[in-house]
Amino acid sequence: MASPASRPLAFDVGVLSPAQLEQLRHFKIQTRIANEKYLRTHKEVELLVAGFFREMFLKRPENILEFAADYFTDPRLPNKIRLQLMKEKKGT
Q1: Nearest C-alpha neighbor of 52 from the set 33, 73, 35, 36
Q2: Do residues 43 and 85 touch, judged by C-beta distance below 8 A?
Q3: Residue 3 within a domain
Q4: Domains identified in the chain, total number
Q5: Quick one: which H or E segment has residue 82?
Q6: Which PANTHER family does the record match to this protein (predicted)?
Q7: Considering the entire predicted model, what is its pTM?
């Protein structure tokens, strides 16, 4: 049996007032906008994720967690991303 701390919390719509729901909606929108701005100004994030998925689909590892740990801790990764960023800047 799962411990109380490991069980997902139930979402109770009636807990928040209409004003709180509006504040929450506004917060979610502002957070999405901020995240989008961040991702647009940090091309390296897109390159990291795209590179990871490309390698994952090419290699199709049995243990995805181990593969992800190895991929993102590869000491050569920062240089690979730097080179890709330079290549993209030259192409534009």
Answers
A1: 73
A2: yes
A3: no
A4: 1
A5: helix 77-91
A6: RIIA DOMAIN-CONTAINING PROTEIN 1
A7: 0.65
Looking at the domain assignment, is residue 13 inside a domain?
no
Place of tokens 């994952």: 56
CA atoms lying within 13 Å on the CB side of residue 90 = 6
Neighbours of 67 (CB within 10 A): 16
Residue 7 maps to a domain:
no
- For residue 1, the SS3 value is coil
Q: Which residues contact 52 (CB under 8 A, 6 or more apart)?
A: 68, 71, 72
User: Residue 55: which of 40, 33, 72, 34 has the closest Cα?
Assistant: 72
Give the type of residue at 58: L
Encoded tokens for 29: 């929108």
Q: Which domain holds residue 73?
A: 24-91
